[in-house]
Amino acid sequence: MATTGEASGPAAEMRKVFTRSPLLGSDTHSLCPGCGEPNAIRVLMETIEEMGERGNTVCVLGIGCYTAFGALMQIDCQQAMHGRAPAQATGVKRVLPDRLVFTLQGDGDMVTEGLQEIVHAAARGERFTAICLNNAAFGETGGHMTATTVLGQRTKSTLGGRDAGRHGHPIKLPEMLAGLDGVAYVARGTVHTPVGVKKTKKLFRAALETQRLGLGFSLVEVVTMCPTGWFVSAAEGPRFQEEKLLPVFPVGELKRPRDLRV
Amino acid sequence: MSSTGSTTEAPRRAFLEGGHALAEAAIQAGCRFYCGYPMTPSTEVLEYMARRMPEVGGVCINVESEIEGINMVWGATGAGVRSMIASTTNGMSLMQESLSEMVLGQVPAVVVNMGRGQGDYNQCTRGGGHGSQRLIVLAPANAQEAVETAYRAFHLAEKWRHPVLIYGDFLLSHTSEAVTFAPPDDATGPLPAKDWVTDGATGRSPRLLTSLGMRVVEAPEDGLAIGPGQTRTDVTAPMHMAVARHREIAAQEIRFETAWLEDAELVVTAFGVLGRFARYAAQLAREEGMRIGFVRPYTLVPFPYDVYRRVGERGIPIAVFENNAGQMIQDVQLGVLGRAPVHFIGEISMDRSGFGVGPKIDALHILARLREVWAARSAA
Amino acid sequence: MAKSVGTVVIEVDACKGCELCIPVCPPGVLSMSPSVNAIGFRYPILRDGCTGCELCAEICPDYCFEVFRAAPSRASAEVTA
Ligand SMILES: Cc1ncc(C[n+]2csc(CCOP(=O)(O)OP(=O)(O)O)c2C)c(N)n1
Ligand code: SF4
Ligand code: SF4
Ligand code: SF4
User: What is the pTM of this model?
Assistant: First the structure.
């Protein structure tokens, strides 16, 4: 069942200006209502389609809710062990240097379990693009603390809120990696507003162009809503993100190669 | 005869340490991605690859951990390139998660454990560490067999779409022998098309290389789908496939060496390089009039249980020599199933560094132990 | 009521009722249905006055929207059906 504003469907002079990217297939996905991850993945697929790299791309998936997109995305994908996608992507990119290779990981995957892999891949200047969907929680396990959970944030393993004295401080991975030689592009985006989603798409384009030009390692962290792991309603997700997460994780480009035109 | 020096021409014969010989054979078998993290006695494989890979246009990475290494090999193999990692004992322990899942994901990589002593038998044959799945495990006894094993390992890995582990030790890695580089006949046949490679979906539908068994099921039977065309996951599917594959592998790929079983009244068994020692000890014993037979399993997985079963059915006792506290002996006992006595004559024997050769790694020591078992057998 | 310069087609049965599309619509022409779809969620319904601005489509995590416009302002965003 589909509905439109007009009972007769779009009038003949209307032109379709937005439709689902063919790279997302046609199946529905299993992620929660109001999850931010599908928005990030959508604009990522649109970017790859627009770059004409559809048949030239290999995605390496970490383990989290986004892993389910391996069955949707109409590009070649490998699934990795929890945290190890940057190593696996290194293997792919080193033997297929002319392919566009990216990892799709969460904060739990990349920053908590897999910090060693991402730091060394960045320091080696591996020419793939790492994408971190940061919702400051282990979403898939039901809302537990990760290395990016912000102070005060309640999770099932920080019941009274994350406390610096007992649980340590959140890691700001883009800020941490931007200082490494070998790292060419670092940015952070958000998908809690339509404008944020559009800007994130530009960051993806810049990161993937950095890779295509062989300029070094590129990383885009995208702050995504996880109403399930934050214990708020889906509709409250964007406000929670704006108020609690974005002050700790400011959006914008942190490092950019001089030669990059996009 | 050309040396392996700086020439890019592949040697056909060479006098090399086992570790170097195995590395060269891997390259000649088409390996173009290698990574490693130094640890004695597997370090020599990394050193050889660091020099040789660039000569053949391949990649060699000195990784920051064995965990990274095995996952790089996963990625490069998945991208369609024959890939290998060698490590030692502790490094192998770090790889267990990925090794387990590479069986489920059907990632045909080759992994080498140049272990310390033979203490990793259980780790190698029961690992990957989790789930019900196992690797294919090959244990060469000398440098020439290590060469053949390298070719065979890549062949078996792709034939079965299953990771293969080569299990050697200090003696295999560090003993120099003359070797000839040529694939054994059984490693030259046609292989199935690599229709699982993820190298960019040009001109074909996209692929997903996964250990999670993700399948799109349009009409789920359990009614739990929350939308039409819902993606459903059956994580157990690859486990059942691995079990079925393993049954086939066990039916087709078991390899072992035997000697003097016809007239044997006692059988000595050992694997890897220690198999050579045990065979020599058995030969010396026979010269002393003891009718001793010999069995060396080459495939540790699948294990040649039937050979031991047949020995057991004749009531012939078996003496097991291994450089550990007694690990393979459990597989021997499973083959014999109580039909005949199984004696452990091995022990942990290394130098004080924990990886060199200890005083009990000696054919004369094995001979002395065989005399004891022989005498006890006669007395019984 | 003013003639709409845009419209949307909503894949109702894919909607999970998150309501993210409701507050982002500038003219406020989306509201949640009183009834539920095939999988039990309320879904957005459109009144007259859509501008075809695509913001609902940008925020919808379940890819429920196709957007149509009478005069596309950006040629690059155009997808011909
Ligand atoms: C080694 C290992 N430890 C734990 C898990 C369990 N696990 C599966 S998904 C997940 C959390 C993933 O979190 P994140 O990457 O942030 O993604 P999200 O679920 O939030 O999308 C964990 C801990 C695992 N699969 N492997
Ligand atoms: S748990 Fe969080 S990250 Fe996972 S699907 Fe639900 S909202 Fe998204
Ligand atoms: S296209 Fe713009 S105006 Fe039309 S329904 Fe969507 S958000 Fe509202
Ligand atoms: S944003 Fe999408 S899924 Fe959420 S209520 Fe609107 S149409 Fe439904």
Answer: 0.94
